[in-house]
Amino acid sequence: MKKSGFLVLASLILVSGVFAQRTVVVTNKTAHDRKAEIVEISLSTLKLSVDKKLYILKNSKQEEVAYQLVKNGNKKVQSVIFQVDVRAKSSSSYTFVKGKPADVKPKTFARFVPERKDDFAWENDMAAYRMYGPALANENPSNGVDFWAKATENLVVDQRYKDDIYNGISYHIDHGFGLDFYKVAHTLGCGGIAPFAGGKLWVGNYFNNYKVIEVGPLRSVFTLTYDSVQIAKSYYKEELTITADAGSLLNKAEVKYTGAGSALELAAGIYLHDGAGALNQDIAAGTLAYAENAVSDAGVPAGRNYIGVFIPGKVNESTKDVEHALLLSNYKTGGSFTYYFGGGWSKWHYPTDSDWFKAVTTFAENAKSPLQVTIK
Question: How large is the average pLDDT for residues 119-144?
Fold first, then answer.
């Protein structure tokens, strides 16, 4: 009996030791470095109770790495995400060890903004965006995306609204950290999406409802619902779920249409404004990238403004209507269609047009070659 009891105790100690930490090995098989890229690991795969916040994540230099617990729309935590740096054709290791993690500096944010005519605004450490809600119904809004340039990793959305609405400090003027110089009008703006039928782009209107799924330091997720999307004489309902990750050049968008028809052609696009900018398109890669002069409301030049769109699935063609450059793809009603969109600025990370075009191309290549994760 004593021997048996000892063996059981030894087994418990061994199991406890095995589960005391986990090492995550992230492998990059591409020919270029991957920096500040988010990886996600389910708790069922990790087999470590990081949801109780009893673990610190460290890199190979023994530096603490911030992580976020995500619920993915569920009541309980489903997975953990964190940013990794992995050199080309190599691997990096990250280890969860016992300890209390430090507070995480927020790099993403999203919220409904009723004090500014029902905007829904969001951001990461690269750029900020907004889309238009029902309080703008009488002003002919679109379902297009507005882009706010940033020149700081800090969150700016709340402060810009507060300054503009209550302090008389316009976010259309650069006060040293970026501004809103982008014009949307009734277009797709910075990478919006709409059905394309009968040779026409059916740009939508304002969203009717919203749902915040996740707001965290490294990832924020929300859904906007459009109740009546018109296509010729038919109407559809659209659900648009957007994910903003820290360090990500583009936002992830998952769109779903429900309605009478069984198949649609969707167009993700870029508003060309005066059309005088530089357009870089690659149908095989599924990318559009645009660069144009940025000018503030006061008529002050503000560098170059950049927009990018990427569709990972099959693209039928790239085309233009009067105002847009578009990527067209087939879509079956009721399913989920995924694409990516976002903006950049010459005064923050991308000094030249070619820098932006290369960044969009690299983003697409990375999305098609995800980092590989193994647990030890």
Answer: 97
Q: 87-103: per-residue pLDDT in tens?
A: 999 999 999 999 999 99
**143 Cα distance to chain centroid:** 17
Angle at 100 between CA 97 and CA 106, to 5 degrees: 105
Q: Which two tokens stand for residue 84?
A: 């990794």
Confidence grade of residue 38 (pLDDT, cut at 50, 70, 90): very high
Q: Distance (Å, rounded) from C-alpha 17 to C-alpha 245?
A: 34
Are residues 344 and 356 in contact, defined by beta-carbon separation less than 8 angstroms? Answer: yes
Q: Is 184 exposed, middle or buried (0-12, 13-18, 19+ CB in 10 A)?
A: buried
Q: Which residues pair with 147 in a beta bridge?
A: 129
Q: For residue 159, give its domain range.
A: 109-368
Residue-wise burial string across 303-342, b where 16 or more C-beta atoms lie within 10 A, e elsewhere:
bbbbbbbbbeeebeebeebebbbbbbbebeeeeebebbbb
CATH (domain of 73):
2.60.40.1180
CB 333 within 8 A of CB 342: no
Interatomic CA distance for residues 50 and 69, integer angstroms: 8
Q: Domain total for the chain?
A: 2
Instruction: Read off the tokens for 278.
Output: 């530089």
Lowest mean pLDDT among 31-35, 49-53, 346-350: 49-53
Q: How many other β-carbons are positioned within 10 Å of the β-carbon of residue 103?
A: 7
Question: Does residue 298 register a pLDDT over 90?
Answer: no
One domain for residues 13 and 147: no
Indicate whether 97 and 193 sit together in one domain: no
Both tokens of 73, joined, read 């729309």
Strand-pair partners of 91: 27
Three-state helix/strand/coil letters over 318-359: EEECCCEEEEEEEEECCCCEEEEEEEEECCEECCCHHHHHHH
Question: What mean pLDDT is reported for the chain?
Answer: 93
Predicted confidence (pLDDT) per residue in 224-278, tens digit: 999 999 998 899 999 999 999 999 999 999 999 999 878 999 999 999 999 999 9
Percent of the chain surpassing pLDDT 90:
89
SS3 1: coil
